[in-house]
Amino acid sequence: MSKSQQLREEGNRHFQKGEYVRAEALYSQALILDPSNPTLYTNRAMSRLRLSLWDSVIADCESCLRLSPDNLKAHYYLSQAHLALHAYTDALAHALKAHKLCVQAQDKSLTNVTAQVLRCKKEKWDYEEKRRKRETSDLEEEVLTLLKKEKDAALDGEDGGGSRGEELTREWEDKLRRVKEVFEKAREKEEKRREVPEWAVDDITFGFMVDPVITKTGKSYERAAILEHLRRSQTDPLTREPLQPHELRPNLDLKQACADFLEENGWAADW
Amino acid sequence: MAGFATKRLGKELSKINSNSLPPGIELVSADNFEEWFLDIRVLDSNPLYLNQIYRLKFRFSAQYPIEPPEVTFVKLADRPIPIHPHIYSNGIICLDLLGQQGWSPVQNVESVCMSLQSMLTGNSRNERPSGDEEFVRANRLRPKDIDFYYDDNNV
Known about the structure:
The complex is a heterodimer.
Chain A: H1 3-16, H2 20-33, H3 38-50, H4 54-67, H5 72-84, H6 88-105, H7 110-157, H8 162-190, E1 212-214, E2 220-222, H9 223-232, E3 249-250, H10 252-264
Antiparallel strand pairs in A: 1-2, 1-3
Helix pairs in contact in A: 1-2, 2-3, 3-4, 3-5, 4-5, 5-6, 5-7, 6-7, 7-8
Chain B: H1 4-19, E1 25-29, E2 35-40, E3 54-59, E4 70-74, H2 109-121, H3 132-138
Antiparallel strand pairs in B: 1-2, 2-3, 3-4
Protein name (chain A): CHIP protein
Catalytic activity (chain A): S-ubiquitinyl-[E2 ubiquitin-conjugating enzyme]-L-cysteine + [acceptor protein]-L-lysine = [E2 ubiquitin-conjugating enzyme]-L-cysteine + N(6)-ubiquitinyl-[acceptor protein]-L-lysine
GO biological process, one term (chain A): cellular response to misfolded protein
């Protein structure tokens, strides 16, 4: 066994024990001896993920991808690091790439990768939702301030006050109240009861579907979930007829519908 | 699969809490995602089960719903074990649906309860499975590991 391989295995042992700093150092030593080994980069990236060293995770994954462009783990870890740094678009792009590679390779990490896709969409939506809310409340503040200014100007024009002044004050108070009401109504509408449509929910996990596949009976399931079931029993969940993984077909229209729904309703991702 | 069971059971629970269960089925407790208790009773006037309530125990593994839950009747002062040719007197149930072969991940707690309800409703035989006494005395296996011989699938 080569020296770098020895170092890597020692790193793996420390990683298993949760000693990520030690593991990371050993992978680094191995990389000095064997700098063109893609696995060493993903090994180190995984330790760095545990240590929350996001920028270093990204550097390692990118080194790995230069050597091996379709490396599933590199894309998966990249997605996690980008998500931690709130780079939502990159996080989602790499999660989707990892998902595609997972399906092609029939890799068992499909469940985790599917969850990562959902997580990216959810966090991206949460972030945008927060921004939308903040912008709306800033706008409300601005409109109210302008109105008050106008009111003061109008009152200044009316020297001496008196009954005309009181009338003007009432008018402006009424305007302010109505503006507030309009904003309040808009907020209520946003927070209306949220329901996930049945067609978007997988009957095995009860989760929102990312990559629905259809069986002979015409029923669709999340790919990761039905594959998990087929590993245990090669039967259709509804009819118990024999069912093989290669008989599953992607349900593209449903996949698109789910993605579109999530675009507008990110909260549904972890419903 | 990590997370499978917890997420799915959480959703089953919130569905139960918001839509309520069908008549004759009641959730007693669901304090964690490993063990739930439910009460069931039959809805017709089958004299074998008239005015009786039965307590069910569900045990979930981390692989639920890929793996079936372990479902047994529990004996309490006011909760007997229903008499049935497929229910042993220690509460172990011999039902295809709950076995490794018959289980399907689209089943859920509610659908299992309904199956058991109709299993009781449809029964007219006032008897235990053959070899009940011997089985109750000797069995040390978990219900899912018992290789039941389905000698009479018409019951």
